[in-house]
Amino acid sequence: MNAPRSKCLFCQSNRGPFTREEHPIPQSLGNDDLVLPPGVVCDPCNQYFGSKLEQPVLNYAPLGIERVVQAVRNKRGKVPRVRNRDIEIQSTGYWDRMALASTPPHRSLLPLRDGRVILNPEWVDPSLLARFLLKVGLELFTMSDAVTPHEPQFDEARRCARFGTRSHEWDFAIGLYPDREDLVIGMRVDRYGPLETRQVYQYSLGVMASGDVMFGFMYATSVFAVNLSRPPSLEYIMGFNDCNSFTISSRWNVFRSPGHLLLPAFTSRRV
Fold first, then answer.
1. What is the Cα 222 distance to its own chain's centre?
2. Fewer CB atoms < 10 Å away: N or C end of the chain?
3. What is the rounded CA–CA span in Å between residue 132 and residue 128?
4. What span, in angstroms and rounded, lies between the C-alpha atoms of 104 and 159?
5. What percent of the chain has pLDDT over 70?
6. What residues contact 34, with CB distance under 8 A and at least 6 apart?
7. Burial label, 32 (beta-carbon count in 10 A; 0-12, 13-18, 19+)
8. pLDDT digits (tens, 9 = 90+) for 222-241
9. Quick check: 77 pLDDT over 90?
């Protein structure tokens, strides 16, 4: 851990206090044990991120939908739900099995012929999502030896994450991993039936040839990447798309007209 103790990573204050646990990846995304040491994020910044940034980001598409599909409970143990005008998508406590409640009650929701249901969910504000990715990336870098996130080259990123400075200009990449079955990393069978172990999230930290510091984050099938050094991410997007079997896009392309979100007709799997 290379960050100075008792100097907040975001507001740069050493006044503190530093008593709250800071999870670089929120507990409501399934992170129970990865916690920053005291002295990295002050209590006021911790409280701000929890209420003003993480809460709206995690309750709207795409992360809100992924949390429902994966049945990831929040830190209070409650199962997630996402509203879509007169339809609410609820977690049942099982992976890949959801309940849809509507007001007024709809007798049926007709799936497409390929087994998918078309929904038009409320999408997160892209500027909030950019700030969230910067916040998570900077915090995770405090646990790495690759860079020191207290350096001046990250001042713009920390100001954007904490205060929203230039958040409307900060690009990020977003995409959808095509094969959900790859999330299954183990399975066993007991007297109650099959029990799967799945990868819920993974992240990558790296420095590009240009010197830009990149943070990549995959949550279930949603894929994100953000440049922690400066707002553009085009270089990373082009390189990623040249090397992978699926593509990611700039926020400017995706959030210009998010349209519909297609969800597969999932089957039940025991948590």
1. 8
2. N
3. 6
4. 44
5. 84
6. 23, 24, 25
7. exposed
8. 999 999 999 999 999 999 99
9. no
Q: Is the peptide bond before 62 cis (omega within 30 degrees of 0)?
A: yes
Tokens found for residue 228: 């922690």
d(C-alpha 35, C-alpha 23), whole Å: 5
> How many residues belong to the chain?
271
Q: What type of residue is 74?
A: N
**How many CB atoms are located within 10 Å of the residue 206 CB?**
14
What is the pTM for the complete model shown?
0.86
